[in-house]
Amino acid sequence: MTCKDHYATGEPFEICRCRTCGFLFTQSVPAENEIGRYYESPDYISHTDTHKGLMNRVYHYVRRYMLGRKSRLIKHSCGLSRGYLLDIGTGTGYFPHFMQKKGWRVSAIEKSPQARAFAKEHFGLDIDTPETLGTYPDKSFDAITLWHVMEHLEHLNETWETLGRILKDRGVLIIAVPNADSFDAQKYKEMWAAYDVPRHLWHFTPSTMQQFGAKHGFILTQRRPMPFDAFYVSMLTEKYKKTPCYVLKGMITGAKAWAASLAKKDRSSSMIYVFRKKQ
After folding, report:
1. Residue 274's closest CA among 218, 234, 202?
2. Are 175 and 151 contacting, i.e. CB atoms less than 8 angstroms apart?
3. Tens of pLDDT, residues 8-26
């Protein structure tokens, strides 16, 4: 199908599906040294921390709630109250700062210079650049997290291989991504805001995420829904559709999506996947 870059340029991009495994990917994406301009906006919240507009205020409220949930998930999955954590695509630094206060030794990676500067100024964090990922020693981390980051990574297979190398044998890899098999994705089709072309290069489902893990020596041990994402994504989609009262309409669709995920968690708008290395 053909999706539009509603966020930055208005350009159309095709999404294709592999006939063998069902994996979805954005076709003809910009080159790695050109894609930065598709992120250049004062409204790109994960890089700027903007509070402008109702949508971004909702985002901040949900983020504060989710920090605690993420921390508890890591503790439950690792069996550790503190250890060595790597957060990839850390944005403006809220999550690593929160985990540091919990007693974890945290390393973090972020591509955006603007976001790294914000994290340094507000939290005193020294955030690494993406090139640092390949330099970490083998079996360095008890937990590695990617919160809505995997879909942005140009070098997908190489990244999985590196994650397997630097994760401890009993460590956990936690990945959150939009779910292209979700209730709201099926409802909105090519208008679904979480396709977010061309910034999202890959579009995962529970099936293809499990296949990726297995391909690179990981076992999927947990799948968890992210019910709040349906409300945010649905409101954003209705905004892109120029729907009158888009917040209300998005909330209604979000509620339906939330109910659908209660009946079947694999229909959640976004999913959290917990992997362990094969022993």
Report:
1. 218
2. no
3. 899 999 999 999 999 999 9
